Amino acid sequence: MVDHTHALSFGAAASDYDRFRPSYPVEAVRWALGGLSDAAQVVDLGAGTGILTRVVRALGHRVLPVEPDPGMRAQLDSATPDVTALAGSAESMPLPDGSADAVVVGQAYHWFDKERAHAEVARVLRPGGTFAPIWNTRDDRVDWVAELGRIAHMGDHTIDLTESVTDLGPAFDAVELGVFEHHTTLTPDEVVGMSHTRSHYLTADRQQRATVDRELRQLLAGHPDLAGRESVELPYRTVVFRARRR
User: Fold this and answer.
1) Burial 163-187 (b: 16+ CB within 10 A, else e)
2) In this structure, are residues 62 and 41 in contact, taking their beta carbons and an 8 Å threshold?
3) How far apart are the C-alpha atoms of 170 and 163, rounded to whole Å?
4) Using one digit for the tens of pLDDT, what is the confidence trace for 100-137?
5) Could you count the other beta carbons within 10 Å of the beta carbon of residue 123?
6) What is the pLDDT of residues 150-199, one digit of tens each?
7) What is the C-alpha separation between 156 and 140, in angstroms, rounded?
8) How far is CA 16 from CA 86, 98, 165, 190, 228, in A?
9) In sequence order, what are the beta bridge partners of 106?
10) pTM of the predicted structure, to 2 decimals
11) CA distance 202 to 85
């Protein structure tokens, strides 16, 4: 069952989401697109504030962002010149049949009604087109990163993804998996700010939020790998699934 309260909680923090969430490595996005030629038509589904949209554009493709949350669409339009996000969802895109060479999804696939979304993505893709859900996941093989995820209830683990995304519906060929490592550099305040863009924090009550903030500050000030540092490198593993439209 999709939790719509959590799924649509991000618009209230759209500006901070765009500021603190990491971008996607170019090599990961290029792999997700499966060697598409320049100026291909790519749909960024569940586009949020346009973080993935901007990487796809930088690779020379035409992008149509589709996003259900009006707050996120407004931030995308503001931060991404010459792009206007379309109101729509994974289950209902305002696009014609066979109009896209690829559909990419950054950080949003787990919110979808899978059966309906798979059919809708297949409708929008041309035969042979690529469907690619993508996640930036923190590398919790590092102990302080694992503790960060526990405190802030972040919950997106690489192993969980690789074991749970095994197919993308009957309209698609077998799923391929790519994993790409990178990092982002944040100040301690920015690490806390990033935690404020997570669905758990956005839907928590005041006391729960205060607990997250207090424990994060303690981690950042007290962990031997972090104490006294003006900035930290937060390691990520970008997990990409891709499959071809039959």
Assistant:
1) eebeebbebbeebeeeebebebebe
2) yes
3) 18
4) 999 999 999 999 999 999 999 999 999 999 999 999 99
5) 16
6) 999 876 555 567 777 889 999 999 999 999 999 999 999 999 999 999 88
7) 10
8) 21, 35, 29, 10, 25
9) 134
10) 0.89
11) 23
